[in-house]
Design a protein that fits this description.
With 214 residues, the chain is an alpha+beta fold. It contains seven helices and seven strands.
Length: 214
């Protein structure tokens, strides 16, 4: 699956109730889990023992979960909850009606490595099932993970030469925050009736757009 080496294959079905029975899910989120997910397969385990690559400082294993959906849509909150509960990095492969889509979160260790935080997710488009292929590149599992995030994110995560994954994600998030501030200010300008306030908003808007274009 996904072009990964045979030694990484695990192919174990995990009853979906094992996830929501052992996760602290709000009632509404549990209902989404039950209604949107048909079954879950643990397809691959990428680790030093299965890909013959050194363990990383931050990444020891990358699990590949195939999540079979009832419909081609899944609440991101479900993936985020699974990522929080499972102490490894995860590549999610969503499948439905003969199509597939890969998702992966930028996941960082917190609390001395005892827990993880996902800042944001990246995903591919929906494509015909069986057509996604990813390469395993790098000298250790940290590099493998960074490579997979970049492959799945594509143009959504531009990087400069020699830039670390952490730096690329931070720069991308800063750009998105700037865009949100610009959109919010543009809305304020359209609604504001007082001329002096509109002038203030426009001056700030000009500065933000200069930062964006610079």
């Amino acid at each position: 699956m996904l072009g990964f080496p045979r030694p990484t294959e695990f192919n174990k079905r995990i009853p979906k109730q094992k996830f929501y029975e052992h996760m602290e899910l709000p009632a509404a989120l549990k209902r989404v889990f039950v209604e949107q997910i048909r079954m879950v397969w643990w397809r691959n385990k990428l680790a030093a023992t299965t890909v013959n690559i050194a363990a990383g400082d931050m990444v020891t294993e990358i699990e590949v979960f195939e999540v079979c959906l009832q419909q081609p849509r899944l609440e991101e909150a479900i993936l985020r909850q699974m990522d929080r509960e499972i102490p490894y990095h995860i590549l999610f492969l969503l499948t439905c009606e003969g199509k597939e889509q890969a998702w992966i979160g930028y996941k960082e260790a917190v609390a001395g490595g005892a827990a993880f935080k996902v800042s944001r997710y990246y995903h591919t488009d929906w494509v015909p099932e069986g057509s996604l292929r990813f390469s395993i590149g790098g000298l250790n599992m940290d590099a493998v993970y960074a490579s997979l995030v970049r492959q799945i994110a594509g143009d959504a995560l531009p990087s400069e030469q020699g830039e670390t994954l952490q730096a690329s994600v931070a720069r991308s998030e800063a750009k998105q925050q700037l865009e949100r501030r610009i959109v919010a200010l543009e809305a304020k300008v359209r609604k504001e009736k007082q001329l002096n306030r509109r002038m203030e908003y426009n001056a700030e808007l000009k500065l933000l757009k200069t930062r964006r274009n610079g």
